[in-house]
Amino acid sequence: MKVRAGDRVFATTTIVAGSLILATLAAVAIFLVLQSIPALIAGPGVLPNDTSNFWQYVGPLAFGTVWAAFLALLFATPLSIGIALYITHYAPRRLSQTLGYVIDLLAAVPSVVFGLWGIVTLAPFVQPFYQWLGDNLGWFPLFAPPVSGTGRTILTAAVVLAVMVIPIMTAICREVFLQAPRLHEEAALALGATKWEMIRMAVLPFARSGMVSAVMLGLGRALGETFAVAMVLSPRSS
Q1: 206 CB contacts (<8 Å, ≥6 apart)?
Q2: pLDDT at 11
Q3: Whether the Cβ atoms of residue 122 and residue 36 lie closer than 8 Å to each other
Q4: Distance (Å, rounded) from C-alpha 43 to C-alpha 237?
Q5: How far apart, in whole angstroms, are the C-alpha atoms of residue 236 and residue 149?
Q6: Taking the mean position of all CA atoms in its chain, how far away is CA 91?
Q7: What is the pTM of this model?
Q8: How far apart are CA 238 and CA 234, in angstroms?
Q9: Which H or E run includes 20?
Q10: How would you classify residue 45: left for phi > 0, otherwise alpha for psi between -120 and 50, otherwise beta?
């Protein structure tokens, strides 16, 4: 079969574009590694906070980032799946459309708004709850005293991150649930399954890969978000 000139040009352009992307990523990685060598081999007195080496300085920061993102996903994943299921299979048509629009709008809210909400509203609201946890569950390491007097802790930052990633994860799960084969759903209902049994047998298995993708995108935003977390945890912001 003769290959048309347009197909040949398109294939060549695609290969060149993909190669340029890979080359650019490789160049960025090499540049970052070379520029980071002085910090990696720096000794005492060079790094901030009087740390003796690079890993001692970066370790707590990396752990805090991963821990906050993990807690955020722990909160956001079941809520996002539940909201998406309600929108696609339980809510009336008009309500589901309205909720869909609201979810899409929430995904576009700037992070500074979530940070201000965490400082002004959420932190004072949850501080008495933290005090109760410290008084009654202080034997557990995560709730051990002393308790923050402002409520601006890593848990508060994780809740803010969870609220930020819920719209993205919900929107993706909603679209995946809507792509589930309609015939499979009707067949399950025709065999006497309840709506939840139909969802468990026909929708969730089909949407498993999409839900994993939603979680990964949520994890990416939770790990990459810095401004809102810095606003919540910074002692200077008010």
Answers
A1: 176, 179, 180, 181, 184
A2: 86
A3: no
A4: 32
A5: 15
A6: 25
A7: 0.77
A8: 9
A9: helix 5-40
A10: left
What is the distance between the alpha carbons of residues 15 and 28, in angstroms, rounded to a whole number? 20
Length of the chain (residues): 238
Cα distance between residue 138 and residue 144, in whole Å:
4
- Find out whether the peptide bond into 205 is cis, omega within 30 degrees of 0: no
Q: Spell out the residues 6+ positions from residue 179 whose beta carbon is closer than 8 angstroms to its own.
A: 206, 207, 210
185 versus 57: the higher-pLDDT residue is 185
Residue 8 confidence class, pLDDT cut points 50, 70, 90: confident
Eight-class DSSP state of 1: -
Cα–Cα–Cα angle for 178, 193, 87, nearest 5°?
30
In tens, the pLDDT along 117-127 reads 888 888 888 88
Q: Where are the alpha helices (DSSP H) in 42-87?
A: 54-85
Task: Provide the percentage of residues in the chain whose pLDDT is more than 90.
Answer: 18
- 197-206 long-range Cβ contacts below 8 angstroms, 24+ apart: 199/85, 199/89, 203/85, 203/89, 203/177, 206/176, 206/179, 206/180, 206/181
